[in-house]
Amino acid sequence: MKTILTYGTFDLFHVGHIRLFKRLSQLGDQLIVGVSTDEFNTLKNKSAYFCYQERREIVESCKYVDMVIPESNWQQKRGDIIRLQADIFAIGDDWLGKFDDLSDICKVMYLKRTKEISTTDIKKSLAVASRPQCLSA
């Protein structure tokens, strides 16, 4: 069985997240998603609209996701890869090169983000009460 592992905050769940999970699930047999805890987001100076438990529940409900684990710190990735026997660690290309050190224990992939959508953009858009157009598939 080929296991894929990724991490993120996954706040304001949107089509970019779904498309990421779909692409990741097509790389193997099992997709495991590490969702950043509220405490870890605080350490990263990042705030989420939804709390960890709600974000976890949302991600767990996605048909492409087989398991959700908490992401509590930067250092846990290596241990998680070994413990979960992940074959591929994949993350957005905005992290390009940051996790190359994990390539000694699994394949490391950096995936292009879905164009024209991001949680940051959604938050900015909501702040001015405009609604983006639907994205094509």
Automatic annotation (TrEMBL):
Its EC number is 2.7.7.39. InterPro entries: Archaeal_FAD_synthase, Cyt_trans-like, G3P_cytidylTrfase, Rossmann-like_a/b/a_fold. Signal peptide: none annotated. It comes from the Bacteria. The keyword Transferase applies. GO terms for molecular function: glycerol-3-phosphate cytidylyltransferase activity. Residues 5-124 form the Cytidyltransferase-like domain. Keywords: Nucleotidyltransferase, Transferase. NCBIfam families: cyt_tran_rel (TIGR00125), g3p_cytidyltrns (TIGR01518). This is Glycerol-3-phosphate cytidylyltransferase.
